[in-house]
UniProtKB/TrEMBL annotation:
Belongs to the bacterial solute-binding protein 8 family. It comes from Prauserella endophytica. This is Zinc ABC transporter substrate-binding protein. The keyword Protein biosynthesis does not apply. Residues 1-32 form the signal peptide.
Amino acid sequence: MTTHRPPSSRRSRRRTLTTTLSLLAVAPLALTACGTGVTSDTASTGGSGETVTITNCGRELSFDTAPARVVGMMPSQTELLLRLGVQDSLVGQAQTDTSPLPDDVAGQAADIPVLSTDAPPAREALLAAEPDLVVSPTEYEFTAEQGFASMDQLAQNGAQAYVATGGCADRRNTAEVTDVLTDVTNLGDILRVPDAAADLARDAQDRLAAVETAIADHPRLTVAQVYVEGNSLGAIGAGVEADIISKAGGENVFDPNAPEFADFFAAEINPEEIISRNPEAIVFGTASPQQEEQTRTYLRTTFPDIPAVKNDLLIAVPQSDLYPGTLGNIDAVETIAARLYPDAFK
C-alpha cells in the first residue's frame, strides 16, 4: 500500500470542510504534545465545596468548585455540555459553522456568545470570555503557533482545559466509541451534575447494546471507510472511526494494526487498494449535500464493479458524528448498522 500522511493544514480544511479528516485529525504538532491517555481519577464528586481531581491527557486537573464560565470548543462539545444541563454556565461556543447543533438543543445555545465560526477562536477572543473551563475535542485547539490560547496561557488566566478522551494523542489511534462515556462521567463530576451524566451515559450504553443485539446473528459485511479530497483518496483504518465500523457490525477491510496506521489513523491510498479489497460497503463522512454527492459520484465512477457500488451500499455519515468526544459517534453506529443490516431494524 502506498501511503502518505494526509495534509496537516487543519485551518484550511476547516474552512472548506471538504474531507472527513477535517476536524477529525490531530495535526502532527498536536500528535506529539498530548501526553498520556485519559483516565478518570476522581478524588471527590460531592458538593460544590469538595475537590474533584481527574487525569486528562497526562495532566492533572483539579476543581475546588464547579466551573461557572465554560466554553465548548466545537459544536460536539457544546452539545455534550448542553445535554448535561449546564447551559447557564456556558459563556462561549466555537467553530459553530463546522456542524449544526441537533434541533432539540439548538435553541438552548441561541444566546451563547459565538467566539469563532470555522476555526478555533483566536487567543484574544477566548481569553476575553474569561472561562474557567474550556472543553475541546483535541489539543490542536490550544496550539499557540496557530494564534490560539495555549493551555499555559489559559492557566495563567484561571482556566483549565479538558480534552476529549479520544482526542488525546496516544489514544487517538486506539480510541473507542465508549471513550465518550469517560468524558460524560468526568464532565459530570467536574460540573457537579453526576446524575445528569449517569442518565446520559446510561442512554448511550442502551443504544449501543440495542445495536449489538439487533445485529448479533448477522454475518459481518466487509466495509471500507474512505475520504475523498480532490483527486486524493484516503482510507481510515484506526481510531474511533474504526471502532464505529466494528460496533456497527462491519468488518474493516483495512487492518488498524497495519504499519500504515501505526502513527496516524488515516493514510492516502491508490484506488487499486479499494478494488483489491472489494468491500461490500463503503462509509464516508460528509459536511454538506454537495460534498456527499461529489463523493458518491467519485466512488461510483472509480469503483463501478465492487459490491459496495453495485448494491448501493455507499453510506454517508455526518462528519461531526466522527469527531472525538461526541455523542454523535453513537449516532454513526446506528446509521451504519441500519444500512448494513436493514432487516435487523424493521
